[in-house]
Amino acid sequence: MNNAVLSVRGLGKTFESGGERLDILRGLDLRVEEGERAVIIGESGSGKSTLLHLIAGLDAPTAGAIEAGGLRIDALREKELASYRARYVALIFQFHYLLQDFSALENVFLPAYMAGVPKKTALERARSLLADV
């Protein structure tokens, strides 16, 4: 079966500071097929957020490959990563980053509109998403 929407192979992330190495992820493999749901659980500091940042293209791995939606995320340039994040990635951060002077509708609408979605379409989608939650 080759319907993976996400494929992570041999993923590694190492941080270096003051001559010390800290391996956060080592040799991680993950495959999520179309229609599947995956849950990432673990203790604090186990690498969950690091993994999500790598998949979202917010950080670069030190080893391995990430493929999502037919794209090699770890090989994309910054402009391509921005397009990938705008079209395919949705993260809910542990600490929210809402624009305080904007309504909930405006906060949900704005990323799609900035990505080039027509205003009417972005507003309809934002209303629909808010109705779901």
- CATH fold assignment of the largest domain: Rossmann fold
Query: Could you tell me the strand content as a percent range?
Result: 25-35%
Number of strands: 4
Distance between the termini: 33 Å
CATH class of the largest domain: Alpha Beta
> Main sheet?
4 strands, antiparallel
- Radius of gyration over all CA atoms, rounded: 17 Å
Tally of distinct domains? 2
**Strands across the major sheet, in which order?**
2-1-3-4
Low-confidence stretches: none
What's the helical proportion of residues?
25-40%
What is the CATH superfamily of the largest domain?
Answer: P-loop containing nucleotide triphosphate hydrolases
Following the backbone from N to C, one meets helices and strands in this order, namely: EEHEEHHH
Specify the structural class.
Answer: alpha+beta
Number of helices: 4
Mean pLDDT across every amino acid position: 87
Q: Would you identify the CATH architecture of the largest domain?
A: 3-Layer(aba) Sandwich
What's the overall geometry? Answer: globular
